[in-house]
Specification:
Alpha-Beta Plaits, 8 helices, Ribosomal Protein S5, domain 2, about 25% strand, globular, alpha+beta
Amino acid sequence: MTHIGRCRAHTNIALIKYWGKRNEELFLPMNSSLSLTLEAFYTDTEVVLDDNLDSDIFYLDDIKQSDKETAKITQFLNLFRDLANIKTRACVKSYNHVPTAAGLASSASAFSALAGAMNQATGLDLDLKTLSTFARRGSGSATRSLYGGFVEWYMGEGDESDSSHAIPVDDASWDIGMIVIAVNTGRKKLSSRVGMKHTIATSPFYSSWVETATSDLTKMKDAIKQKDFITLGEITESNGMKMHATMLGAFPPISYWEPDSVKAISKVKEIRETGIPCYVTMDAGPNVKVLCRQSDMDKIEALLLEDFNREQIIPTQVGEGIKLISDSDWNY
């Protein structure tokens, strides 16, 4: 027998950053975080549980992946198989509509979609709160991609895995948008996981980062409640820069920035000085994200095109949470 699950999940960009784990095995973060789910970037994933398979098979964009990459998927699938009390192997086909490992949250959408597809294929029918604790075990930020709009990833208590999960905060339907300035969409040389561990181990700024991230989150949730875009943007930009400052304080220092990253940040500040509110944030990669009002996106795009190519400018609206894909809508 075969059992099939298909799911779409969108990426999310953290506005209050997650950078570091207190428990590596369970992917439990050092601080709570908050993100915005994006419409333009997503992953579609199919899981086929097949009694005839002797081992798991993993295809990414129709390319069969190595044993090493497949082993990571197997470890994740086992979380669901153990709960369902089955041993059936799977063929996983995933299609990434977002550059992989470029600091654009491809792992968030990838593991969120995989969690949703496996939840359907196994028939476990886990609720979203519980499912977010499973998605987290593949990639920490994946826990937030289960929901649309603004989403909090609650850090949880101690080493209790079930206590760390995603919480929907607001649907962000009040004129919120984002523009990605794609400086370099190639695979980054230093993974986020390695960068996090190195920063925690060697940066004297790290403890202060965790302390201020907590207060930043409280202030940001209040700004969202008040629909105060200016405060939302200011906290977003400050928090992101502080995260990168902890990396620069590591020994030896870490920097994911490239010359065009600095150029993009300077350009956004120049645009802001003209009276258009817009704010930058960056994850572990060189690409710059611009938080703005959706109604200002066309004006901001036009100004960015003075310094960047059209293909580098990717506007996006707010994305929705995960959804199952029907047979008729599966177009791969």
